[in-house]
Design goal:
Elements lengths: L20 E8 L4 E7 L6 E4 L6 H7 L12 H8 L6 E5 L5 H8 L3 E6 L2 H9 L3 E4 L2 H6 L6 E7 L8 H11 E12 L20 E2 L2 H10 L3 E6 L5 H25 L10 H8 L8 H33 L6 E7 L2
Parallel strand pairs: 4-5, 4-7, 5-6, 7-8
Antiparallel strand pairs: 1-2, 2-3, 3-9, 8-11, 10-11
Helix pairs in contact: 8-10
């Protein structure tokens, strides 16, 4: 296992100030690495050490593939188009399956997509959209300064090891008066059941509050023109409640009953079944999925009203507590 010593005072990856305070550690079994998370007392960003981007192999092991929502239902995209910006050339960094590109084109924009995963980019190109499979530094070297009216970072910034480098290049690619749009998980969202697994390194290297994001962009020479962080979605809150109060306990119980001895931390029933096997009908993955669906539906029905009440409590008692932080900044 790779570990990290406390070492000398660390410099914040967002503001370069020293004096960061260790707040927690996280061991990732897929990377076999112990990460330390530090809070910067100067700007408020929480960042991890080490910060080294992981490759496709890590994502294949650690992050299950999920179909993206229809682009017209994506709250991040809705916020972008609600700004009333005049259509122009827009660069979508981390374009994935191209949902935003299609939506932008339908609204009069000239979209360009970038993603490191060529497997995602090729189908986007076949749909007649401009998309590039490249890493960020290589792409930036191939583009002219001031080429775009807008650059979008939809849930991208928290994944990169050095956020200042990303934002500085994005700013260079913007025209004067152009907009940089950043969305990511809001660090002020309520976490009554504990932090979600996706919000730990090496998946996410940084965590941002609205104030931390605003200060960061302004230090980089941008002017924050709009920020939204108040949309606490009760449906997402219900899903989180079901996961932590029902699904996780049920899975822990199932592992204890089905597999003798301790299980590796975070290992799924499917992973364990591949090694040890399962009795009877439980060996069928389809049967296990149906059982999971039954447990999930029952837990959702039981927890619906308590989760709604808790969600309402947070809305009334905490400002800027939405799950998504949307920030729009202007290049002078």
């Amino acid at each position: 296992m790779t570990t990290l010593d406390a070492g000398p005072a660390l410099s914040c990856c967002a503001c370069a100030s020293a004096g960061a305070v260790l707040v927690e550690t996280h061991y990732d079994r897929h990377a076999n690495t112990l990460f330390r998370l530090y809070a910067c007392p100067g700007c408020g960003v929480v960042f991890s050490e080490p910060r080294q981007a992981v490759g496709a192999d890590w994502y294949a092991d650690a992050v299950p593939l999920e179909a993206p929502p229809p682009p017209e239902d994506d709250a991040r995209y809705e916020s972008f188009f609600r700004s009333g910006l005049s259509p122009g050339r827009v660069l979508d960094v981390g374009c994935g399956e191209g949902g935003f590109l299609e939506l932008a084109k339908s609204k009069g924009w000239a979209p360009v997509g970038l993603d490191y995963d060529a497997r995602k980019v090729e189908p986007v190109r076949r749909r007649g959209l401009e998309a590039h499979a490249s890493d960020w530094p290589s792409f930036c070297r191939s583009r002219k300064a001031g080429e775009f009216d807008a650059v979008t970072l939809f849930d991208v910034l928290e994944h990169v090891p050095e956020p200042r480098e990303l934002v500085r290049e994005a700013k260079r690619l913007l025209k004067s008066g152009g907009r940089l749009v950043v969305t990511l998980p809001n660090a002020r969202r309520p976490l009554p059941f504990g932090r979600e697994e996706f919000d730990f390194p090496p998946h996410h290297f940084t965590r941002w509050t609205p104030a931390a994001m605003k200060g960061f962009l302004e230090r980089e020479g941008l002017s924050v023109s709009r920020q939204e962080a108040d949309g606490l979605d009760w449906r997402a809150f219900l899903e989180i409640a079901v996961l932590h109060l029902a699904i996780k306990p049920a899975l822990r119980l199932a592992k204890r009953l089905l597999f003798k001895g301790p299980s590796p931390e975070g290992a799924s029933v499917t992973e364990l079944a591949q090694d040890a096997g399962l009795p009877g009908g439980l060996a069928d993955k389809g049967v296990r999925r149906r059982l999971f669906s039954i447990v999930y539906a029952a837990a959702t029905a039981v927890l619906f009203l308590p989760a709604m009440a808790l969600c309402l409590f947070f809305r009334l008692t905490r400002s800027n507590c939405g799950g998504i932080l949307y920030t729009e900044a202007l290049k002078p």
